[in-house]
Amino acid sequence: MTETNTPEPIWKTPFSIDRANQLSKGCANERLGIELIEAGPDYVVGRMPVDERTKQPAGILHGGASVLLAETLASFAGAFCVDPETQSVVGQEINANHLRSATSGHVTGTARPLHLGRRSHVWEIHITNDDGKLVCVSRMTLAVVDRPSSGRY
After folding, report:
1. Which end of the chain is more exposed for a tag (fewer CB within 10 A), N or C?
2. Is the pLDDT of residue 152 over 50?
3. Integer Cα distance of 111 and 76 in angstroms
4. Where does residue 133 rank: exposed (0-12), middle (13-18), buried (19+ CB within 10 A)?
């Protein structure tokens, strides 16, 4: 028997990169060039260009764009961790520590859960530049809410 260090999958619904990217069409994710690129058993990875859409006037990555990437990754991850027929997730709180500027290329975020509870999730998101250096660390709390039984959601 071979022992592995691969964690058990956390997804209630198999994570679909294609589905997540399709849902991003026509909203802020698409407009800022955010795309999900990988999902493992307990993490999601996405990237965003550092260009005129995501830079602030000083020519560096806007902190709000980093937060939008972080929230996108945590929200998609959380949505795949609940039963989509009966529950959904909504953001409750997000914070970010901006550690290094980025001026070009892409930033890549990886979201991993710190807590997956019955009524809340806490996700940690590390955002790095093209050299793999940490640009931002963010933490997001999601509320797990019941979908209305009326079907109006």
Report:
1. N
2. no
3. 10
4. exposed
Per the annotation, the verdict on 71 as an active-site residue is yes
Q: Find the catalytic residue in 71, 85, 93, 124.
A: 71
What is the band of 4 on the pLDDT scale with cuts at 50, 70, 90? low
Among 26, 16, 32, 137, smallest CA distance to 79 is for 16
User: pLDDT tens-digit profile of 129-150?
Assistant: 999 999 999 999 999 999 987 5
Residue 24 lies in a domain: yes
DSSP alpha helix (H) spans, 13-62: 17-23, 28-31
First to last CA, the chain: 47
Residue 11 lies in a domain: no
pTM greater than 0.90: yes
Whether residue 88 is contained in a domain is answered as yes
At 94, the amino acid letter reads I
Q: Is 152 domain-assigned? A: no
Half-sphere exposure of 40 (CA within 13 A, CB side): 11
